[in-house]
Amino acid sequence: MSEPQIHVWLMWFMVAAGAASAVALTFLSAPYGRHARPGWGPTLDARLGWALMESPAVVVFLVIYLSGGNAGDAAPLALLALWQIHYVHRTFIFPLRMPPGGKRMPLSVAAMAFGFNLLNAYINARWLSELGTYADDWLSSPAFIIGTLIFAVGFIVNIHSDRILFRLRRASRDYGIPHGGMYRYVSCPNYLGEIVEWIGWAIAAWSPAGLAFAFFTAANLAPRAISHHRWYRERFPDYPPERKALIPFIL
Question: Can you give the residue range of the structural domain that contains 58?
Fold first, then answer.
């Protein structure tokens, strides 16, 4: 089987894994963060676990990207920059911003996320620098411009929403009701921002690999947002009734 055929099968595997994840997470919340609970085996420090499980999206992605024949072309380089803007922050900065308190996560969760990031790094990096084709004027195309703008909006929403959560946790030493920004409308604007980011990146890259990743992101984060929303309503009787879980005014 040729590499392009393997690549296609791996993309379909990611789509199938996303669909299976959506079904599973509808009935069972992933056991980390506010949904942490015993019974999932050995644990490790949440900051360390987060950095380790996200690291392939930075390091492995870059190594695979640089092995491609189109790695020096302008459009793939621009898309590489967008990818690394998100994942350098997510891997190295985000864990350092986590409030102190000895939070832990199951090693099994970190291992599954590490495996997914390995797969995702290969699929998307290989498409950018080897299997995909980008014209010399791709950076001025409507798809790239619109996709990059959508990515930027999602990134800003994601970062700003995380900042509100971190400030709240540091102030109260516990979970509370977040206010401000997109929290006026939804319980999980950080997840909404990340979904929007990868939809934008998939448009900018105009890539089936990017589309598969955007689908997986939504399939993974939408059920968790609903779990968060339910958790807020159960824990806080005064939780704003007009807020939705993920999509303003809709869901």
Answer: 3-235
